[in-house]
Design brief:
- The protein is mainly alpha-helical.
- Helices cover 75% and strands 0% of the residues.
């Protein structure tokens, strides 16, 4: 029997994550099933369970992939560019049509009764905060932002501003105004 090479496993996982993301956007997290995801890929449901045990586990990996994409874009800001504008531009990805921000609100509601979803969202926030602290520390070490008095609090404030602006954009549909306000707020809290 041939051995499965690690590269194949990584590719299979990436394909499953992408398919789950599409299905969650189309059907919503609660309505989507592992069967739907398997159908999207053209594989058996059992094949999915070889890689992911639950939808919540898939959700964690979808969030990880999104986080990695945003951080990759922010890496360019370490050396130069307008920090506030660059960070605010990351919200454009959320509202580009590639992601449905309503899914996040569905997940928050779902987390009140589903401990697995709650755990996934808590883990996601911890990872966001950890990466934000690392990003801010790198900016500080390059002299792009002033010395931080409280890096943990600053990371939480920046994340809260991003989440609040995303919510405002979703509720009002006035993305330009909310984005402009976010840029001013980021400049204020980052000392730019």
């Amino acid at each position: 029997m041939p051995k499965v090479v690690p590269e194949y496993k990584a590719q299979a996982r990436a394909r499953i994550i992408a398919a789950a993301s599409r299905v969650f956007r189309r059907k919503g997290f609660r309505s989507a099933t592992m069967e739907d995801i398997a159908h999207e890929l053209g594989v058996s449901k059992g094949a999915l369970y070889l890689y992911f045990r639950t939808k919540a586990e898939l959700l964690v990996h979808i969030q990880d992939a999104s986080r990695e994409e945003i951080i990759a874009k922010w890496e360019k800001l370490i050396e130069d560019g307008d920090l506030a504008e660059g960070i605010a531009n990351s919200l454009a990805d959320i509202f580009s049509g590639d992601a449905d921000p309503a899914i996040w609100h569905e997940l928050v509601a779902e987390s009140s009764s589903d401990p697995e979803v709650r755990a996934a969202l808590v883990q996601d926030h911890r990872e966001d905060a950890k990466l934000m602290r690392k990003f801010l520390a790198r900016l500080e070490s390059r002299g792009r932002i002033p010395k931080m008095r409280d890096p943990v609090a600053l990371a939480e404030v920046v994340l809260t501003l991003l989440q609040g602006t995303a919510l405002q954009m979703m509720l009002t549909g006035r993305g330009v105004d909310a984005r402009r306000t976010l840029v001013r707020e980021l400049r204020l809290v980052l000392g730019l």
